[in-house]
Design brief:
The chain is of the alpha+beta class and 419 residues long. Among the domains are: 158 residues, no CATH class; 129 residues, no CATH class. The protein has seven helices and 22 strands. The N and C termini lie far apart (55 Å).
Length: 419
């Protein structure tokens, strides 16, 4: 074992009191935080002394400790005892109240309660704490789960997000309201076709498509923002079809990480920005791919986004034909991250064709304007800090949502969850 890794293993055993456990396996992992930072962790599996080994195909034995520690900060990302059973001589943390838990989290992360994180929810024996900025929720959501056994001993701790660093933020006063955001709200209010499985029919309904609106109305962020994703809008056209057989290559994720990469904090491939040159090469290759695989579809596909995924690039396309169905025809084309050559693709045509033939609705009787007036009292606009990858900071936005819909046939207002 690399001497630097051995030092982390020894530190973990001493820090957590794993004297009657032994290291069974270890591996290095690399991920990208919501702030586009590369994070390296040492993943370890510790077995109690009385368990000598177990078949990897069998269920992990009760009491096994699965532990993840950050390489750079030597802070623990997760501490999990399988089955909620610990064989430690002394518990890592034993508390009976929420205040004690909060104090321990503050010590482990260096963050401050009610400034950087707050209590979120309680489900049976598990407590969850959510990351915030100046009292405002962030997007994507980051949280901590912590769980105790009947004696109050910690048996589960896991952080979902980068809780080791303070978040860079552009501070401002939240001034956005639904009146100011009305133009964008009307743009997000659309008619959709919802399949209702139990009744085997399609319901035509008006509903809001969720979105984040900048506090100063200067722009928006999609509801599911993805780091290093370029939103594009290119209709793919060509003059001459060149039909040809396309041989798919298996998708192989390069996940093996060396100690040299980890301790040098080598950037994850997904953190590399997509340049204008990269985008042009993607457009050129996707057009070439479509000419071969979909030769008669010139003008039928629109490229919507380009995203780095491990060491390759995902390009998403949708059909240009207008459709209100929430299940749209889509293409995902995978390009090699270095050569920009297509090596695999996914088409959801087969999935859509396998959907049952549902009864189509009658004509639309309710106008968009009337539907908007009927449901606008249910619109929600809440402050959220959203990570702005271009400026590398969190910016204040309003989160636009609505849990209700308007039936386009009857004008009835209902809950989306009931569809």
């Amino acid at each position: 074992m690399d001497a630097r890794l051995q030092e982390l293993v020894d530190y973990t055993q001493e820090k957590l009191g794993l004297e009657n456990y032994y290291l069974h396996s270890h591996d290095l992992d690399r991920s990208v935080s919501n702030q586009n930072k590369t994070l390296y962790t040492l993943e370890m599996e510790w077995l109690p002394e009385h368990i000598k080994a177990y078949d990897e195909e069998d269920e992990v034995p009760e009491g096994v400790a699965s532990i993840s520690i950050y390489i750079d900060s030597r802070k623990f990302n997760s501490i999990i005892f399988v089955g909620g059973k610990s064989y430690l001589n002394k518990p890592i943390l034993q508390v009976k109240d929420k205040a004690g838990i909060i104090k321990w989290i503050e010590a482990e992360t260096g963050l401050t309660y009610e400034e950087d994180f707050v209590f979120w929810r309680e489900e049976e024996t598990r407590l969850s704490f959510k990351r915030i900025i100046i009292g405002v929720e962030i997007s994507p959501t980051e949280w901590i789960d912590i769980e105790f056994d009947e004696e109050g001993n910690l048996v589960f701790f896991s952080m979902y997000g980068d809780f080791m660093n303070k978040l860079l933020v552009k501070e401002e006063l939240y001034t956005l309201d639904l009146h100011k955001a009305e133009q964008i709200t009307k743009q997000q209010f659309q008619q959709w076709d919802f399949p209702v499985d139990e009744q085997k029919r399609i319901v035509r309904a008006y509903a809001i498509e969720e979105i984040y609106i900048r506090n100063d109305l200067s722009g928006t962020f999609s509801f599911e923002p993805t780091l290093n994703t370029k939103q594009v809008d290119y209709v793919m056209k060509w003059d001459v079809p060149t039909p040809n057989r396309f041989k798919r290559k298996q998708v192989e994720l390069t996940t093996k990480v060396t100690p040299e990469q980890a301790f040098a904090c080598e950037p994850h491939p997904e953190t590399f920005p997509l340049t204008d040159k990269d985008i042009k090469m993607c457009v050129k290759e996707v057009r070439c791919f479509l000419q071969k695989v979909y030769p008669n579809d010139s003008g039928n596909w629109r490229m919507t986004s380009i995203h780095r995924h491990y060491d390759f690039i995902d390009v998403k396309l949708v059909q240009t034909a207008k459709s209100n169905n929430i299940n749209k025809r889509k293409l995902l084309i995978m390009l090699d991250g270095s050569s920009f050559k297509a090596f695999n693709y996914m088409d959801n045509k087969g999935m859509l064709e396998s959907l049952p033939n549902y009864k189509m609705p009658e004509e639309i009787n309710i106008s968009k304007e009337a539907a908007y007036e009927a449901v606008k009292s249910h619109f929600i606009l809440k402050p959220r800090y959203v990570y702005d990858n271009d400026n590398e900071e969190y910016t204040l936005c309003g989160y636009l949502d609505c849990h209700h819909y308007v039936d386009a046939e009857t004008g009835k207002v209902g809950l989306l969850n009931d569809l």
